[in-house]
Amino acid sequence: MADRKIRTREHVIAAMSLHHVGYIVAKAGYVLDVTAADDGVDGLITTFDADGSIESGYISLQLKATDHLTIRRDGCIAVRIDLRNIDFWLADFFPVIIVIFDVCTEIGYYLVVQDYFKAHPLTAAQRRRATLTVHIDPEAIVSDRVVWSWRDLKTGHRKARA
Protein backbone atom coordinates (compact mmCIF):
# COMPACT_ATOMS: atom_id res chain seq x y z
CA MET A 1 0.00 0.00 0.00
CA ALA A 2 1.23 3.51 -0.85
CA ASP A 3 2.13 5.88 1.95
CA ARG A 4 -0.65 8.28 2.77
CA LYS A 5 -0.31 11.97 3.36
CA ILE A 6 0.06 12.94 6.99
CA ARG A 7 -1.95 15.72 8.60
CA THR A 8 0.56 17.68 10.64
CA ARG A 9 0.09 20.04 13.57
CA GLU A 10 0.72 22.91 11.14
CA HIS A 11 -2.25 21.77 9.04
CA VAL A 12 -4.47 21.63 12.12
CA ILE A 13 -3.59 25.06 13.47
CA ALA A 14 -3.84 26.62 9.98
CA ALA A 15 -7.41 25.28 9.77
CA MET A 16 -8.13 26.63 13.25
CA SER A 17 -6.91 30.07 12.18
CA LEU A 18 -9.03 30.03 9.03
CA HIS A 19 -12.19 29.00 10.88
CA HIS A 20 -11.60 31.49 13.71
CA VAL A 21 -11.24 34.43 11.32
CA GLY A 22 -13.97 33.11 9.01
CA TYR A 23 -16.45 33.05 11.89
CA ILE A 24 -15.64 36.64 12.85
CA VAL A 25 -15.95 37.79 9.22
CA ALA A 26 -19.35 36.04 8.96
CA LYS A 27 -20.43 37.57 12.27
CA ALA A 28 -19.60 40.99 10.79
CA GLY A 29 -21.97 40.18 7.91
CA TYR A 30 -19.33 39.57 5.26
CA VAL A 31 -17.98 36.58 3.34
CA LEU A 32 -14.49 35.07 3.47
CA ASP A 33 -13.56 33.17 0.33
CA VAL A 34 -10.54 30.91 0.73
CA THR A 35 -7.97 30.98 -2.07
CA ALA A 36 -6.63 27.69 -3.36
CA ALA A 37 -3.17 28.79 -4.46
CA ASP A 38 -0.32 29.36 -2.02
CA ASP A 39 0.53 32.79 -3.39
CA GLY A 40 0.68 34.97 -0.28
CA VAL A 41 -3.07 35.45 0.11
CA ASP A 42 -5.13 32.91 2.04
CA GLY A 43 -8.52 34.54 1.63
CA LEU A 44 -10.51 37.43 0.22
CA ILE A 45 -13.24 39.21 2.17
CA THR A 46 -16.28 40.41 0.25
CA THR A 47 -18.24 43.18 1.95
CA PHE A 48 -21.80 44.45 1.70
CA ASP A 49 -23.37 47.84 2.32
CA ALA A 50 -26.05 48.59 4.92
CA ASP A 51 -28.77 47.45 2.50
CA GLY A 52 -27.04 44.12 1.90
CA SER A 53 -25.79 44.97 -1.59
CA ILE A 54 -22.40 43.55 -2.54
CA GLU A 55 -19.59 46.10 -2.76
CA SER A 56 -16.82 46.15 -5.31
CA GLY A 57 -13.27 45.45 -4.21
CA TYR A 58 -11.99 43.06 -1.58
CA ILE A 59 -9.85 42.75 1.52
CA SER A 60 -6.96 40.27 1.27
CA LEU A 61 -6.00 38.13 4.25
CA GLN A 62 -2.78 36.31 4.99
CA LEU A 63 -3.29 33.95 7.91
CA LYS A 64 -0.58 32.59 10.16
CA ALA A 65 -1.01 30.35 13.17
CA THR A 66 1.25 29.37 16.01
CA ASP A 67 1.38 27.48 19.27
CA HIS A 68 4.05 29.89 20.50
CA LEU A 69 3.74 33.63 19.90
CA THR A 70 7.03 35.51 19.81
CA ILE A 71 6.60 38.47 22.16
CA ARG A 72 9.19 41.25 22.13
CA ARG A 73 10.28 43.15 25.24
CA ASP A 74 7.99 46.03 24.25
CA GLY A 75 5.04 43.61 24.20
CA CYS A 76 4.62 43.55 20.42
CA ILE A 77 4.14 40.26 18.60
CA ALA A 78 6.97 39.49 16.17
CA VAL A 79 6.02 37.77 12.92
CA ARG A 80 8.49 36.81 10.19
CA ILE A 81 7.27 37.47 6.64
CA ASP A 82 8.70 36.58 3.22
CA LEU A 83 9.80 39.81 1.53
CA ARG A 84 8.33 38.62 -1.79
CA ASN A 85 4.90 38.59 -0.12
CA ILE A 86 5.43 42.09 1.27
CA ASP A 87 6.28 43.43 -2.19
CA PHE A 88 3.21 41.69 -3.63
CA TRP A 89 0.92 43.05 -0.91
CA LEU A 90 2.23 46.61 -1.15
CA ALA A 91 1.39 46.61 -4.86
CA ASP A 92 -2.26 45.80 -4.07
CA PHE A 93 -4.72 48.67 -4.33
CA PHE A 94 -7.03 47.27 -1.64
CA PRO A 95 -6.15 46.52 2.01
CA VAL A 96 -4.06 43.49 2.88
CA ILE A 97 -4.32 42.19 6.43
CA ILE A 98 -1.97 39.77 8.19
CA VAL A 99 -3.57 37.78 11.01
CA ILE A 100 -1.46 35.78 13.45
CA PHE A 101 -3.62 33.31 15.34
CA ASP A 102 -2.48 32.26 18.81
CA VAL A 103 -3.77 28.71 19.21
CA CYS A 104 -3.25 28.70 22.98
CA THR A 105 -5.54 31.68 23.62
CA GLU A 106 -7.63 31.37 20.44
CA ILE A 107 -7.03 35.05 19.68
CA GLY A 108 -6.15 36.53 16.30
CA TYR A 109 -3.95 39.62 16.11
CA TYR A 110 -3.85 41.71 12.95
CA LEU A 111 -1.72 44.16 11.04
CA VAL A 112 -2.81 46.29 8.07
CA VAL A 113 0.15 45.85 5.70
CA GLN A 114 -0.11 49.14 3.82
CA ASP A 115 -0.48 51.17 7.04
CA TYR A 116 2.43 49.37 8.69
CA PHE A 117 4.85 49.98 5.83
CA LYS A 118 3.71 53.56 5.42
CA ALA A 119 4.80 54.08 9.04
CA HIS A 120 7.88 51.80 8.69
CA PRO A 121 9.20 52.13 5.10
CA LEU A 122 11.47 49.35 3.91
CA THR A 123 15.16 50.27 3.88
CA ALA A 124 17.64 49.22 1.20
CA ALA A 125 19.22 46.79 3.68
CA GLN A 126 15.85 45.21 4.48
CA ARG A 127 15.12 44.80 0.75
CA ARG A 128 18.22 42.61 0.40
CA ARG A 129 16.88 40.07 2.91
CA ALA A 130 14.64 37.10 2.16
CA THR A 131 12.42 37.74 5.19
CA LEU A 132 11.45 40.60 7.43
CA THR A 133 10.00 40.66 10.93
CA VAL A 134 6.95 42.85 11.50
CA HIS A 135 5.70 43.85 14.93
CA ILE A 136 2.00 43.58 15.73
CA ASP A 137 0.38 45.54 18.54
CA PRO A 138 -1.03 43.08 21.12
CA GLU A 139 -4.14 45.30 21.35
CA ALA A 140 -4.87 44.71 17.64
CA ILE A 141 -7.29 41.83 18.19
CA VAL A 142 -9.56 40.62 15.39
CA SER A 143 -13.25 41.24 16.12
CA ASP A 144 -16.36 42.00 14.12
CA ARG A 145 -15.85 45.73 14.80
CA VAL A 146 -12.32 45.47 13.48
CA VAL A 147 -13.56 43.69 10.35
CA TRP A 148 -15.99 46.60 9.84
CA SER A 149 -13.02 48.98 10.06
CA TRP A 150 -11.25 46.95 7.36
CA ARG A 151 -14.31 47.54 5.16
CA ASP A 152 -13.95 51.28 5.80
CA LEU A 153 -10.32 51.03 4.67
CA LYS A 154 -11.44 49.22 1.52
CA THR A 155 -14.20 51.67 0.66
CA GLY A 156 -11.82 54.55 1.33
CA HIS A 157 -9.33 53.05 -1.11
CA ARG A 158 -12.08 52.59 -3.67
CA LYS A 159 -13.22 56.21 -3.34
CA ALA A 160 -9.63 57.47 -3.60
CA ARG A 161 -9.30 55.77 -6.97
CA ALA A 162 -12.55 57.24 -8.37
Features:
162 residues; alpha+beta; three-stranded antiparallel β-sheet; 8 strands; 35% helix; globular; DUF4365; transmembrane; DUF4365 domain-containing protein; transmembrane helix; membrane
What does this structure look like?
- With 162 residues, the chain is of the alpha+beta class.
- It is globular and about 50 Å long.
- Strand 4 and strand 5 form a beta hairpin.
- 24% of the residues are buried.
- The strands form two sheets. It has a five-stranded mixed β-sheet. Strands 4-5-8 form a three-stranded antiparallel β-sheet.
- The model has no long low-confidence stretch (mean pLDDT 92).
Major pleated sheet: 5 strands, mixed
Give the N-terminus to C-terminus distance in angstroms. 59 Å
**How many E-type strands?**
8
Radius of gyration: 16 Å
What's this, in brief?
With 162 residues, the protein is of the alpha+beta class. It contains 5 helices and 8 strands.
